[in-house]
Design a protein that fits this description.
With 381 residues, the chain is α/β, with parallel strands linked by helices. Helix content is 43%, strand content 14%. It is globular.
Length: 381
Amino acid sequence: MLPGPTNVPPRVMRAMLKPLIGHRGPEFKELFTKLLGKTKKIFETKGDMFILTSSGTGATEAALQNITEDGDKIIVNVNGFFSERLGEAIKAYGGRPVVLSSEWGKAPLVEDFNRIVKANPDAKALAVVYNETSTGVTVRALEQLGELCADYDMLLMVDAISIQGGDKLPVDDWNVDICVTASQKCLMTPPGLAFISVSDKAWTKIKSKKVNRSYYLDLQMYNKYIEDGYTPFTPAVTLLYALSEACDMILEEGLPARYERHRVCAEAVYNGMEAMGLGLYAEKESRSHTVAAVNSPLGMDEGKVRELIRTKYGIDLGGSLGKAKGKMFRVGIMGNVGSSDIMTTVGAIGSATSELGFKAKIDEGLEAARETLSRLPGRVN
């Protein structure tokens, strides 16, 4: 139950057993062309889509290196460890991050974004971490931010690494110009693939760029190769097999049903923890549907809680990062997660914290989670 890499369904694992094919032959062209179509459906975009052999950070860097000129202002929300990193990456590519800071565990409001955009109308882009993995916080104002950026002729770049495929994000309808994610989160594929969607508006900026700081991450080069159905560099073919199967599972379930399942499972974790007497790190209105951040009981080392859960119950949970170090642990609610995963995890957290001295109301927590999960739609693949 890590917030990435997540559990990979057996059906996806089996797909990787297929024989390797040459990445310049007709079989690969057919596979890759179909995959681009599948991922576009998940992103809900008719724009261009690129699949990179890299971590999610590779897609983030691809976005920044292709749109950022020296001195370009890029507004970035910072409310956690990974949004801090995004600000650092902007600097690395010559940009000037204009930081909209929020308390960890909270998301900036539309009014906050409005103020900073109006104060910096010359900014070239607004970069938003839609789901801050380190704190379990989602920026619920993303649709309005697309409208705001359209009004100011500013690019909207979205880091959706820990949420794409697990919560609503219709790229075209929300005016998202560049959206990035990775394979090992809600797309329930092993690590090693990253994705980036590009709008026509973003292409205008990319094609006008004077200095190119990366050869491997040059999207214009990728675009030329994709026209013929290939990639400019050797792709991870076995991961593409896995991704194809995972996309099929996602589209078979249907995006609305999938998002609702993630929402209910997340709510079950939150309700279970609160009924048990444990606090939650993120403010209620911004709590993520894919990562739940749970406060460690006062005076209890969260590392000891996670280690006991791992060794005694066989469940891995995510640790805390940055300013939140030692204060909480994180539960990944991604991919093919269902009732049994949630109930087992809630029970393990209750038992482990009790064993370490916290008076957890285990029965109440399990009942709250069970009642919430009764609202799950359909069955999981």
